[in-house]
Each structure stands twice: as C-alpha cells, then as structure tokens.
Amino acid sequence: MGKTNEKKNIVEKEKNGKKKIVGRIILVLSIAFCVFIFISILPFLYFILVVLYSVFIDVPSKPKVKHGEFPFELVYEYKGERQTIKETITCDYEGYSWTLDGGNSRDWNCEFEKDSEYGQYIIDNINERDLYIEVPAAADYYMGDKNFTEEHAQPLIMFIDETTGTSYQEIEKIDVVEIEIIEWKPSKPLKGNIK
Questions:
Q1: 80, 164, 182, 185: which has the fewest Cβ within 10 Å?
Q2: Residue ranges of the domains in the chain?
C-alpha cells in the first residue's frame, strides 16, 4: 500500500504541476490579451476625449462686434510705374467649427468690396503665368484675435500657372519682373473684440 500511495502522490504532484503550468499560461495569455485590447482601444479613447474637449471645453469666444469693414491702400511699382489699389475687406462672424487638428476655430465670411477674386489683383501675364498681388482676407487679425499679427495680413507677390492653376510665390523672380510693394496701409484691427 505504501507504494501505491507514493505513486498516487507522484501522479497528483504531476497533475498539480501541469495545472499550475496551464494556469500560468492562461494567466499570461489573459494579461497579454488585456494589454492588446487596451492598446488597441487607446487611439479610439484619445479621439473621443479630444472630440469631447473640443466640443464642450475648447469653444472660442464670440466676438463682441460681428461685422467689420477694413479699408486698405496698397501702392506698388511695376516696370517703373506706380499703381495704387484702394479696397475694403468686409468681415462677418459666422460661428465656429471643429477643425481636423483637434480644435475649434472661428468662421468668418470675408469679401472684397470691388469683387476682386479672393484678394488677387492681377498685374500682368508672363510666360503663361499671371503675376498678381494677393491681399489675404485676414479676418482673425482685423477682428482683433490676439493670436494673429499684421504679418498675417501682409500682401504677397505671387504667380499663378494658367495651365495647372497652381499658385506660388517666386521671390527670386520678383527682381526680374520689376515689381515691388512700395507702401502697405492696412486698417488697424479692432481692440478688445475677442477675449
């Protein structure tokens, strides 16, 4: 009887040892599965948190003045001849919207009084490229958003390729085409309009 008890003890120890190994394997696999699920869900949770933050917390303040008219004067010289553009940018607040980079931004409708195409004043056509001066409709600057400076409203000398419709700035060619902005007189932005 002693030998059978010993055999039973050995068999039971082996069974217990196998059960412990199987239990540990199941534990390790369960932990790995939980970690995998957690890591898989993190981007989704992050996206949900960003959306909730943007919708409920990061709402930009409304401007006190929702309509503004901002006259400007631009003097440029092209091929030795001075020209002046006098224009008015009209800005209207339209609310705010959520942007893809995870925040809210104020929406503005801006128009140029004399119906220039998006603030582009065509000066000449050189080698199938329109030479123009572009005046940005910088509503955020004009309406008093402190995050925007006069630099955002600076006019640019640009070219547009008529064949592709691509627009780009070519500073190295500006001397070649003899164009220069002599004077830029934008309106001052509203003060204290946006908190």
A1: 80
A2: 1-57, 67-185
